Amino acid sequence: MPNMKKIKTKIKSVSNMKQITKALEVVATVKLQKVKKQTENYRDFMTDFLKMMNVVRTKINILNTNNPDPKGRRLIIVMSSDKGLCGNLNSRLFKHIFQKYNDIKDNVDVFCIGKKTFEFFARADFNVVWYVNLTDDVSEDDLKDVYSHIMDGIANDKYWKIKVYFNYFKNTITQVPLRFKVYPLDQDSFDGFVRDIGLDLEDLMTDELDYKDLIVEPDMKFFKQEMLRQFTQHMIYGAALQNKAGEFASRMLAMKNAKDNATDMIKDLKLSFNKARQSLITQEVTEIMSAKMAIEG
Fold first, then answer.
1. Is 157 helix (H, G, I), strand (E, B) or coil?
2. What is the pTM of this model?
3. How far apart are CA 86 and CA 174, in angstroms?
4. pLDDT grade, residue 259 (50/70/90)?
């Protein structure tokens, strides 16, 4: 009897866990559909923006051609989830960054986006310069501190190189750790970013401005700074949307797997309970028969 009571308690506990994971799966699914639509809309905007920027840079040199000091300080902007229960989404990204920067972390600043990022890099003794959270409904206002820190660092020549690390939402099952360089923005960085987000460089080609003159106002220096500022902000905001979509997709799959495992465990526990009950019934029948035989004998 104690054994059967213990099994019944386990069945109840696992059933409660199944209900919780099922609810979390539903919530993550709803949020994923919402942010996927937002991501797709922003992708269309980014395609048009990159097409315009690609045309402009063929006529005006807006990319960086300088060779910065390789001994200068680095800034890495790392995005993660604020909550757990999303599989190995964060750990894969953190492992890659840790292996790359741990030996030179004294010369690296980390801007953390997401609670899990802050916890990891603070524990790993990196120099965390700032930390922000992202709401589930990501907006550019959530990232204004990031934009400000980058622009100040570039204006004051504080950083030699600035990179952004995030999880790219390829599809519901696959999220890929990616990084792109926002400073200095050169030809390789621009082309690499276009390829990483799944666009073809040929898709950015257009002849709409080939026979038109470009009017730059108020001057070339301001125009170049403004173009690079907008490009940087759009890249980071797009990365935040991709990372949030990856978070919800990973959590949805993790909760689905947990729910399925709970279902299998309940089946096994019920089988064990039925076996224990059958064994108890058999034992009781045997005892009754033995007592009857003893009385008759």
1. coil
2. 0.82
3. 13
4. very high
